[in-house]
Amino acid sequence: MASKFKKYFFLASWRLGAGLAVLWLMASAPAMAKPRVVLDAAHGGNDPGVKFKSEVEKDWNYKIAQALQKAFEGAGFEVVMIRKGDSVITPEKRIELINTSQASAVIILHVDREWTGAQRGPYLVAEPPTRPEAGDSLEIQKWGFVSPALYHSSLKLARAIGQKLGVNTEFSNLSDTRGLAGEPTSPEGKVFCLPHQSLRFLTLPSVVLTPLFLSSTSDIKKYSSSGNLTDFSDKVVSATSEFLQISQ
Amino acid sequence: MKKKGTLKITLSVLFIGMVIFAAWKFKKQTPEKMGLVQRQNQSPLFEPHDKSVTIFLKAVELETGRPYNITTTIRQSKSRFNQMKQAVLAFIQGPRSGKFQVPVPEGLSLNEFYFTPQGLAVVDLSTTQMKKESFGFFEETVFVRGIIEVLSRNFFEIKQVKILVDGQDAPTIAGHYALGTADVSVSVPMPEKIKN
Description:
A: alpha/beta, Aminopeptidase, 2 domains, six-stranded mixed β-sheet, B: alpha+beta, three-stranded antiparallel β-sheet
């Protein structure tokens, strides 16, 4: 009798345990499946970035990152914000935070300025692959390493975002020849294959997104409107979803 | 028979002698290929009677903000090293007014220029007086690509360009465009020598 009771008790406990485990898995499944993106608003604190009249790069980078965070979270993404507020983060810390984030895509925000006032955003930068003859591990440690596979992935993300934002996704004629693979370049091209300090040590698909030039009156006007900023953010989210092959 | 043989030997010795003399003369006329790193700080970069040579420069069109290739002239000094240094200076001191301008940040200057027999051109820039907050990624890119191209396209001897900041290896000039040996290597098709 006692052994029969023991057997039933064991079976009941096992079934209850299994059931609870299934329930826990079902409950946590949506959270686990959330795609993760990193948003890095460049500069911050005592590093203002570029300035143009009263406009400061660090403030615009953060403003746009916040709009993107809202849009990404609204679309079911998990967002890792590297900079929270006007804080100082060393380049080394940024790299560490991004590379350990396990995110599927990284978007680094830098607004720009130039003296003619004629250039307008947006444009995108993808880090070219490191040359095979780049040198020994010491050189790589010093200057970073980007594999051809990582470069192609980052370029795909840059082009997806560029396409959604309606810019010319050809390579700019300022691009470095590494990574062009015979593709033509154009002065109108808004995708730059260039070495960028914010990208060179990253190990995840990453792009620098420059939405605007502080020196462009029309850019400032455009991105000062919350409606335009929301529209821009939604397009970036949609492009990232396409890149990650997620249906929205 | 014996006379013919002696004549043959004499002619051969004369021919070998002429070849050796020609090779010695040629080597003497190409000082760039000799020695170690070239650095001619003291001597003038050209003589007043030196001919002018047209070279290519990268600039930005003021109206559109787009990069364009423009031309300028330097002096055809005897030393290729002096021509290279003139070209770098022509770019750094390039036009700041008019339709096409070169984006050089205020306060940036050339510390020194070096050239090695292996074809490496080293441009050492001084940034101590430079205002970093006025130099964004676009301008930094036009400037760095401009230096690389002014050297690689105008001088066929240059195989690689390296940029130093205040005499040191530096990650960037103003915080954006990543410098480094691997990054600024020139892999453009073999540049054509600019003709007179």
